[in-house]
Amino acid sequence: MRIVAPASSANLGPGFDALGLALDLPFLFAVDDADDALLACEPGHPAAVAYRSAGGRSERLNWRSPIPPGRGLGFSGAARAAGALAGRLECGVEEAAARREALEIAVRLEGHADNAAASMLGGFVVSAAGHSLRVPLGVEVEVVVWWPDSETSTGRARAALPSTVPFENAVFNVGRSSLLVAALATGDLDALGAATEDRLHTDVRLAMSPVSGEALASMRDAGVVACWLSGSGPTVAGLVAVGTGEGAGEGDRVARLLPTAGTTRILGVDQRGAQVLG
Q: Over the stretch 259-269, which tens digit does the pLDDT of each residue have?
């Protein structure tokens, strides 16, 4: 059995632990597969842990993925979504139910739903209060991502955040995250710049990776539709509209303006989510 699940960018600025966008960078998880090109999945690997938690029993587990771990692109969320889905399917659960149950397992292991939900469902996902809902995008977009050579510990980045925030900052983020959902759903590109502003976590996390702040500033200077710190960083992401006329090639143009001391990719939004390949 082979399961593939996409990478993701979470938070999208103000949507802390609630908003996620699936990206077409795949995580492949294989059960009882003889392909020598795959890597052995050690017992502590997030995909293997999710697979066992979902009832999987095979000892021959493998994986492969271009998603960089520790960079804020949902490596563990994709791995857990794929592993949990494989485990539930192996137990004979019908696919629709297996996906629901696998998502619950992946979210429990992740500790928050944004990445895992995007990897399982695909597209743009809102997660809160035990619900994960996919919101149709009102515009076709690409996401330019850039990450430095260094990793960021999600636990350390989360521990650095304050335990309380000023009331006005909470109100600011509620408004911005609500605007962001509406803007992406309706395709209102003009609103997205303001909609991705954040006062809860971005500045604290950028202080831990100054080069990411420089890359984010480069994206703003390049005129992206919107940009944000992806997950807990250090990856930064910029949104560009896909066009066939004057706006065509925006992703390439933005990518050329980003720091060369790092990795840049232009990614589409994955609309399929976790898939069974065979």
A: 999 999 999 99
Catalogue the long-range contacts made by 260-266 (C-beta closer than 8 Å, 24 or more residues apart). 261/148, 261/149, 261/211, 262/146, 262/147, 262/148, 262/149, 262/211, 262/215, 263/68, 263/146, 263/147, 264/144, 264/145, 264/146, 265/25, 265/144, 265/145, 265/146, 266/142, 266/143, 266/144, 266/145
Q: Which fold has domain 2-134?
A: Ribosomal Protein S5; domain 2 (3.30.230)
pLDDT for position 135:
97
pLDDT (tens digit per residue) in 95-121: 999 999 999 999 999 999 999 999 999
Fold classified for 141-268:
Alpha-Beta Plaits (3.30.70)
Domains of the chain, by residue range, sit at 2-134, 141-268
What pLDDT, in 10s, does the model give residues 114-169?
A: 999 999 999 999 999 999 999 999 999 999 999 998 766 667 767 878 889 999 99
Q: Please, what is the Cα angle at 254 between 250 and 258, to 5 degrees? A: 170
Q: Which residues pair with 23 in a beta bridge?
A: 7, 269
